[in-house]
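re: ur msg from earlier - yeah i can do the zinc ion complex, just paste it... oh wait u already did. ok heres what im feeding in:
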Amino acid sequence: MKLTVLGNNGPYPGPGGACSGYLVEKGNTKILLDCGNGVISRLQRIIGLEALDGIIVTHLHSDHMSDLLVLRYALDIMLSKGMLDAPMKLYAPGNPAEVLKSLQYKNVFDINLISEDTTASLGELEFCFKPMVHPVPTYAVRVSGGDKSIVYSADTSYNSRLVEFGSGCDLFLCECALMEKDRGDNPVHLTAFECGEIAVAASAKRFLVTHLWPGYDSGEVLSEVKARYPDAELSVEMNAYNV
Ligand SMILES: [Zn+2]
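and the outut:
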């Protein structure tokens, strides 16, 4: 498998950055994981939109799905011109309902709702999901291709389900939106230290941190992660990672 980081900023992009979006490929199969602002532009530096086999969004927060709103128009044009022969497969949680409704535009998406029991087989890749702890329904995603696996945390506060779900994965892509100094009493994201703890507890073989707040010094974020997982790496936009 190959994972390309299209955008890793959150909850808004810094100068020249993009929010959450990851292209996962195996053979001819190409799936987009999350579709925050800036992602569709970055994706087309690598593949045409018609080459996508499907899109999975972990939750309906704007920094993970807002480019779907402009992708609607592209798909509408492509369908009408015969550049696509079917609506784009989209997996997403069903709430907030008003956000989901904005995606039910001219049936350009073939929408499949994600629940804990959902499994998806798209080309050469298999997907399963685990509910996380975040203000809207949010699912971590495990992608399997052959005997390799990628686990993506989506957005979440600390919870043991993510440790189980990530167990033994070849690549753990984990959100790291906070530092301990800003944790507060009721965080809706992981701190750098916490995501390091989860990666260690899950015995992740390779560990990339993502969902980086543009206001932090990324070197300081990485130092906090490395206090728990010394080989942690910052994800780099437009870098591809072979798994
Ligand atoms: Zn979120």
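cool cool. The first helix runs from residue 39 to 43. ping me if u need the other ligands too
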